Automatic annotation (TrEMBL):
Upper classification of the organism: Eukaryota, Metazoa, Ecdysozoa, Arthropoda, Hexapoda
Reaction equations catalysed: 2-oxoglutaramate + H2O = 2-oxoglutarate + NH4(+); 2-oxosuccinamate + H2O = oxaloacetate + NH4(+)
Gene3D superfamilies: Carbon-nitrogen hydrolase
Family the entry assigns: Belongs to the carbon-nitrogen hydrolase superfamily. NIT1/NIT2 family.
Protein known as: omega-amidase
Source organism per UniProt: Pieris brassicae
Alphabetical UniProt keywords: Hydrolase
């Protein structure tokens, strides 16, 4: 688990996180997603149990795993959290398998608003975290892709951190990956692993999916997991796939192709402190000149 120690090199250097030698076995599930919600959810539950059988302690699902990705679908597929059928299924699966489940994302209905929301369930099936996508995907790349989530969705306003087996884990969703300030604040609060369920497309995926994941891992010196849906070439929105795990050196240690599959790997948290000791950028930031701060 994370503890703190004061670095004695210079008095202006703040405290830094230290990690014991912790191995966390994670499974990143790249699901095929269709228009049948019940079928999508049933497949996710099946994959959770299969991942547990492979020794996973944490299972992460992709963005919009119970719904096609598209603004015209969000309202029809939206559910309340934690009362909806998808939440109930994830809670039951987490409890039955005895594994922490990062529930990708689902369209969440709250009053008259819709959110793109990731839920986290502990080994007892209890909801321990909920992250609403903070940065909405509003882009226009001429002759390539135009998409505006804000036509339907509202943004979340909170950073989300939870703990699994003594490891602090930070959550972001897809477009959140582009905002390093968010990652920096989660790292600053002790996270050794960031998980981003995301559905990058065939334009941004090849260009930026791995690049941004490696950038966040490198600049924050921690593990980054990117979890995509599988690619369906016949869908209206075609996901890039290539679920990827990146270590604190910024190296890709495991990656899937575009098809449905599960990536299982043990995350060595001792690497986080090794890298941070070797290249001590946390201690060298000029916070007398610049800083990134969390606003309540």
């Amino acid at each position: 688990m994370a503890v703190t120690a004061t670095d004695a090199i210079h008095p202006r250097f703040a405290k830094k996180p230290l990690f014991y030698s912790i191995g966390l076995k994670i499974a990143l599930v790249q699901l095929s997603v269709g228009k049948d919600k019940s079928k999508n959810v049933a497949q996710a539950v099946k994959k959770i149990h299969q991942a547990k059988a492979k020794g996973a302690q944490l299972v992460a699902l992709p963005e919009c795993f119970n719904s096609p990705y598209g603004t015209k679908y969000f309202n029809d597929y939206a559910e309340e959290v934690p009362l909806g059928e998808t939440s109930r299924a994830l809670s039951q699966a987490a409890a039955e398998a005895g594994v922490c489940v990062v529930g990708g994302t689902v369209p969440e209905r709250c009053g008259d608003k819709l959110y793109n929301t990731c839920t986290v369930w502990d080994i007892n099936g209890k909801l321990i975290a909920k992250h609403r996508k903070m940065h909405l995907f509003d882009i226009d790349i001429p002759n390539k892709i135009t998409f505006k989530e804000s036509e339907v969705l509202s943004p979340g306003n909170e950073l989300t951190i939870f703990e699994c087996n003594g490891v602090k884990v930070g959550l972001g969703i897809c477009y959140d990956l582009r905002f390093q300030e968010m990652a920096h604040l989660m790292a600053k609060e002790g996270c050794g692993l960031l998980i981003y369920p995301g559905a990058f497309n065939m334009t941004t995926g090849p260009k930026h999916w791995e690049l941004l994941g490696r950038a966040r891992a490198t600049d924050q010196q921690l593990w980054v997991a990117l979890v995509s849906p599988a690619r369906d070439a016949n869908a209206e929105y075609v996901a890039w796939g290539h679920t990827t795990l990146i270590d604190p050196w910024g190296a890709v240690v495991a990656k899937l192709d575009e098809k449905e599959d599960t990536l299982v790997h043990t995350v060595d948290l001792s690497m986080v402190e090794d890298v941070r000791n070797s290249i001590p950028i946390r201690l060298q930031r000029r916070t007398d000149i610049y800083d990134t701060v969390r606003k309540s």
